[in-house]
Amino acid sequence: MAGLSLASYTARRIALGLVQVLAVVTLVFLLVQALPGDAAVALAGDNPDPARIAQIRAAMGLDRPAPERFVEWLVGLPRLDFGVSLVSGRPVADFLSGGIGPTLVLAALTLVLLVPISVLVGVLAALREGSLLDRALTSISVALHSIPEFALAVVLIAVFGVQLAWLPPTAVGADLFAQPAVLVLPLVVLLARPICSISRLVRAGMVDALASDYVRHARRLGIGETRVRFAHALPNALAPAVQQVARTTDWLLGGVIVVEAVFVIPGLGTVLVDAVAARDLPVIQGLAVVFAVTTVAVNLLADLVAFRLAPRAEVVA
């Protein structure tokens, strides 16, 4: 991408992101429509009257052609109009606003803690390459990365929540904002694997950067070792890690669903599980759109940061 300005690259990525969002929104609608069964039949209860089924289908708009319903739904998305729940009759936006708080708290705290901890662990391992500290961090990373989130969550609940009773095992009856201790175990579960993968990338990038020609040249110019490490080597080591952070955010959307289910946290993951169980198609569609737009936006931001960091590989002084 040599010669491409940041503004031009940003415009291209935004245009591509909009196309991706439109494609995902279309795919979500088609997949939901392809689900087996009939929501009207499910809502009508046992031994439903055909007249009752027809009445429900008309009330939900299921008697209209799918393209017409898709266009109506698509036009409402920019206004955050995701439709109405088939089960409760409430706007889908109410479900999203009700569950987004706990999910945002979990995701934001995870990302805020993830980046500095991963960079610190990776840099420490790189600066002590081959040492006992480096080998210990590598062993711990491999061990933690091999444990699935739900298994780690169950172990933490059993040990710290039940046996030792140091932390609340679940969020049942707790206020997340008034009782932050409830978030400790979920955060540990969400942080464990990403820290392992990102710190290893930072370590590898830092080792390569410290052995590069431009770092050796900077040392020959008499630049201090601290500046060489953190002003020249570290930014280049972070470029691949930024992309991994974006992929981690994608994973985080699914990880939050698992964590919210295990720790009984009333966030978007719980809303999604309930909507799938009730076959509440508009709620499922709305959540899928939110997750898709978040994924595209995070990857766009990561690409821009990586693009900004990458040219520094050519800067020597």
TrEMBL record:
Spans through the membrane: 104-127, 147-166, 178-196, 251-277, 283-302
Membrane topology: Multi-pass membrane protein
GO biological process assignments: transmembrane transport
Protein name, per record: ABC transporter permease
Gene Ontology cellular component terms for the protein in this record: plasma membrane
Localization in the cell: Cell membrane
Entry keyword Transmembrane: yes
Organism, scientific name: Lentzea alba
Keywords: Cell membrane, Membrane, Transmembrane, Transmembrane helix, Transport
Keyword Membrane: yes
InterPro entries in alphabetical order: BPD_transp_1_N, MetI-like, MetI-like_sf
Short name of any one Pfam family annotated for the protein: BPD_transp_1_N
Family of the protein in this entry: Belongs to the binding-protein-dependent transport system permease family.
Domain called ABC transmembrane type-1: residue spans: 100-302
